[in-house]
Structures are given as structure tokens and as C-alpha cells.
């Protein structure tokens, strides 16, 4: 079993062991290591690694960078990919000021508000994407791909009986 040094807070001391140089380490199952190696390929790098205890057991959250794309993987204890999500940097809707709007949008907002005061403006970015489901053995996954063919999300959704 390979050991990767990590810098962790004291809340993880129970699950980690100290090495001579004072760094904390977490043992990583070889199946998890193999999945990470396969997902990042030869040119990718691991940006983040966390072991978490979920209600159904231990899971691993891994941030990898492949080329200019950042991915977040969620792996179960046996190394199976439960979720693979592209980190687009879009955190969802965010608030903007009226001055930051394009002129045509600002004009329409003000026209439709009439004498009213616009108190909140939420900027929501949406791109075209496609959602499908697949079955690998008994495991079902949801796959989201953008219009350019870029994988946005692959998520385990359950097992078929």
C-alpha cells in the first residue's frame, strides 16, 4: 500500500500517522491509487486528496488537473468512480449590480421595472448540455456532456436488481 503525504488539520490525527519529518500520512488502498492513476493519465496531476467518512463507508475525494481541465472525483473504498465532475468554476447564480449588466439588458430591466427600484439581480449562466444514463454491469450512471462533447459530470445513481 502506497502512502501519500498530506497536510491535514488536527481533526484527522486519528486516521493519520506521523512520519519523521512531521507530515501526516494516510494509507491509500491500491485500488484507489489505480483508479486515480487511470483517471489522471500520464500528464495529469493530483491537486487535492481527502478521505471522508460517509454514511455508507469511507470515500475519497480527489481533485485532478488534466491539461487545462480540473476534475473532481468521488471514489468509494474499492476505487470505483462514484462521481466524476468537471470543475467549471461556475458556482451557480451570483448577484450582480445593475451597472455591471450589458446595456441592452440594463435598459430592458429598467424599462420593465418602471418606477420601481431593482433590488436584486441574479446572473445565471446556462449552456446547452445533454444528459444520458448508462448501465455498466449492474451499476447505473448519469452522464452529462456539453454541446462541444466535453464531459461535465458522470455520477453513480444506483444498482439494478
Quick overview:
The chain is mainly β and 161 residues long. It is 14% helix and 45% strand. The chain has a 7-stranded antiparallel beta sheet with strand order 4-5-6-7-12-11-10, covered by helices on one side. Strands 1-3-2 form a 3-stranded antiparallel beta sheet, with no helix packed on it.
Tally of separate helices: 2
Q: In total, how many domains does the architecture comprise?
A: 3
- What is the strand content? over 45%
State the major sheet: 7 strands, antiparallel
* Overall residue-averaged pLDDT value: 80
Order of helices and strands: EEEHEEEEEHEEEE
Structural class: mainly beta
Main sheet: which strands, in order across? 4-5-6-7-12-11-10
Gross morphology: elongated
User: Radius of gyration, rounded?
Assistant: 22 Å
- CATH architecture of the largest domain, by name, is Roll
The low-pLDDT segments are: 1-17
Number of strands: 12
Tell me the span between the first and last alpha carbons. 33 Å
CATH topology title of the largest domain: Nuclear Transport Factor 2, Chain: A
Level-1 CATH class name of the largest domain: Alpha Beta
Helix content: 10-25%
Amino acid at each position: 500500500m502506497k502512502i501519500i503525504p498530506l497536510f491535514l488539520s488536527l481533526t484527522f490525527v486519528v486516521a493519520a500517522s506521523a512520519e519523521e519529518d512531521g507530515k501526516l500520512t494516510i494509507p491509500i488502498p491500491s485500488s484507489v491509487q489505480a483508479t486515480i492513476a487511470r483517471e489522471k493519465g500520464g500528464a495529469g496531476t493530483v491537486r487535492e486528496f481527502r478521505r471522508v467518512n460517509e454514511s455508507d463507508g469511507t470515500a475519497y475525494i480527489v481533485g485532478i488537473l488534466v491539461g487545462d481541465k480540473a476534475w473532481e472525483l468521488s471514489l468509494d473504498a474499492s476505487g470505483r468512480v462514484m462521481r466524476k465532475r468537471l470543475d467549471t468554476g461556475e458556482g451557480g447564480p451570483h448577484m450582480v449590480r445593475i451597472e455591471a449588466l450589458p446595456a441592452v439588458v440594463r435598459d430592458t430591466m429598467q424599462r420593465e421595472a418602471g418606477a420601481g427600484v431593482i433590488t436584486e439581480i441574479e446572473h445565471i449562466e446556462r449552456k446547452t448540455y445533454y444528459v444520458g444514463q448508462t448501465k455498466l454491469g449492474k451499476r447505473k450512471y448519469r452522464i452529462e456532456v456539453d454541446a462541444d462533447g466535453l464531459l461535465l459530470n458522470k455520477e453513480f445513481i444506483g444498482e439494478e436488481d
